[in-house]
Write a structure and sequence with these properties.
Blueprint (H helix, E strand, L loop, with lengths): L39 H16 L6 H22 L3 H9 L2 H10 L7 H15 L9 H11 L1 H13 L1 H4 L7 E3 L18 E3 L3 H18 L7 H5 L3 H90 L6 H9 L1
Antiparallel strand pairs: 1-2
Length: 341
């Protein structure tokens, strides 16, 4: 009886196993994988690129495009916080093609799309700031591209994020926003059910962005052989403090200017009132002098009249006396006058 055949001499022909004596078959040989598995960061970079492609399809509805936008925003927020102060992760992200993924949305902007270009510019600034590991894409490689895009343009893109309601409305206890927002520019977006909402940002990212915005803004205009964050020696807390002090100084300067303006107005009003009062006093003094002169004149006239009246009365008495001596009759009026006298 022939024995069971378990192997062939030619390995390329494969192997066969004939069960005998209840033995278990040998395990299959493990297949060798030439490519190492993707890291999480590489997967995120690839998913971000695919999301950009999906949102740019012509057949995508406004509602579906908005959902893709929210997904892209989520990826960009996650990557921004992941790559912060991590040069090794920045190198891995750049080697995975993330740099090219960020540049295109910055050049393509619209009135309804301000958030994604702002986040792409912010993440691009993070890559430039913390690109400190050797590799194909270095700070010297990125710097000419930043100049071609325009540092002012990049800063302007990031600044518009602060004006967006989806960013401004987020607070420590406020994350969910109504859908669609009243101020949205796409009238085709409508409710599918009541009390529908959406989430764009969480407070952790908003706080992170506000804390590091000025560092990235300063870093975009830094030469490749300089590091803005390390050279200045300022951490996030120092940046916040400087920004707060600047706002305080700006506010105090405005308040001082307002107070100085009020002082000038009050001084001008006071000078005008003093001048008016002086003019009034002068006018009253002049009127008083004229009244006193008129009074003196009137008194003098009255005195002259009294003297004249006295002279006339004395003269009349003498004339009446002469008339009586001559035997002339004196009229009753004259008699009464004499009696009165």
């Amino acid at each position: 009886m022939p024995s069971p055949v378990s192997n062939l001499s030619d390995p390329s022909a494969g192997s066969f196993f004939v069960p005998a004596d209840g033995a278990h078959p040998p395990p299959p040989p493990e297949e060798e994988d030439d490519e190492p598995p993707q890291s999480v960061l590489q997967t995120l970079s690839e998913n971000l690129s695919l999301s950009f492609l999906s949102r740019s399809r012509a057949s995508t509805s406004d509602r579906e495009a908005r959902e893709w936008d929210r997904l892209v925003v989520g990826y960009l927020c996650l990557l921004s916080q992941w790559l912060w102060e991590d040069p090794q992760s920045v190198r891995e992200f750049l080697d995975a093609g993330g740099f090219g993924t960020l540049v295109e949305p910055i050049n393509q902007t619209s009135e309804t799309d301000t958030v994604i270009p702002a986040l792409c510019a912010f993440l691009l600034g993070i890559c430039y700031e913390f690109d400190r590991e050797p590799g194909e894409i270095t700070r010297e490689t990125i710097y000419p591209i930043l100049n071609r895009l325009g540092v002012d343009t990049l800063v302007g893109r990031m600044a518009r994020l602060r004006e967006d309601e989806r960013f401004k409305a987020v607070g420590p206890d406020t994350v969910v926003q109504p859908y669609p927002p009243i101020s949205h520019l796409q009238p085709s977006l409508k409710h599918e059910r009541e009390d529908e909402g959406e989430i764009w940002f969480d407070w952790a990212f908003v706080d992170f962005w506000k804390s590091n915005y000025f560092t990235i803004q300063r870093g975009l205009s830094t030469e490749p052989d300089q590091l803005s964050s390390s050279a200045s020696g300022q951490n996030a807390e120092a940046t916040i403090l400087v920004a707060s002090l600047r706002d305080m100084l700006r506010s105090q300067s405005q308040e001082i200017e307002t107070l100085q303006h009020k002082v000038k107005e009050l001084t001008k009003m006071k000078d005008e009132e003093v001048a008016a009062l002086k003019a009034q006093v002068q006018s009253l003094s002049s009127d008083l002098r004229q009244a006193e002169e008129k009074q003196k004149e009137t008194e003098k006239e009255q005195e002259d009249l009294l003297v004249l009246l006295d002279e006339m009365t004395s003269k009349r008495k003498k004339e009446k006396a002469k008339l009586r001596e001559l035997g002339q009759d004196v009229s009753e009026d004259e008699a009464e006058d004499d009696g009165d006298e």
